[in-house]
Specification:
Number of domains: 1
Strand content: 5-15%
Shape: globular
CATH topology: Rossmann fold
Distance between the termini: 26 Å
Structural class: alpha/beta
CATH superfamily: HUPs
Strand order of the largest sheet: 3-2-1-4-6-5
Helix content: 25-40%
Largest sheet: 6 strands, mixed
Bound molecules: iron/sulfur cluster
Radius of gyration: 17 Å
Order of helices and strands: HHEHEHEHHEEEHEE
CATH class: Alpha Beta
Length: 247
Amino acid sequence: MNPEALTQLARQLDGLSPAQMLTWAAAKFPRQAALASSLGAEDQVLLDMSVKGGLLTKDPKLDLFTLDTGRLFPETIDLLAQSELHYAVQFRVLYPDTAEVETMVASAGINLFRRSPEDRHRCCGVRKVAPLRRALQGKAIWIVGLRSDQTANRADLAPLVWDEANRLLKLSPLLQWSDAEVDAYLDEHQVPRNPLHAQGYPSIGCAPCTRAIVPGEDPRAGRWWWEQESQRECGLHLENGRLVRNH
Ligand code: SF4
């Protein structure tokens, strides 16, 4: 997309609330807008807003999807089921390609991610990135729960950007929200949330690659903690080759 067209589109978001941005995306890109969820706190906020905005009714205006890597916490799977019941919605669940997983595990072991950053990237590529590419096929825009204060190098991210890797627009309605605002929304609206958040897990990914943090630690310190900071990315959110969020 050329920069001028992106600027024109982005202007349409000026002054809109996150809920209004969701409605805007659904109306602007009928049947081509996807709401990605990893069942994290921000994603649950967007789910609640979408349901209340009538975007996930019997004729959904958004394609609600999640990636089941096969290595998620049981609590995350339970939250998926609980959310479907609570909101009377259905997630489209994408799984890794079985043959790719089998080949990877046969050649490098089931916990290959501990061996080297390259092996960890390989695992994320098979279990996350490839299913994400499939999920986004045919879409014009994907909506994510990114927030600007989650990593330093994302501070200048705009709510609407062009994702060159996936060749579509990416909308972050909660970009300017704080942790406290997310918590307040979840409390006020009694949104189902992952019980691991209360056990020291601000960011919840695959079970073997996520640990609890202690008070004062960086919220992202619990992800791939055995690697150096600069190597911690999974390839889901890259801007011009630069990491903007770990998942
Ligand atoms: Fe594999 Fe860990 Fe990446 Fe999950 S987070 S896909 S288990 S390397």
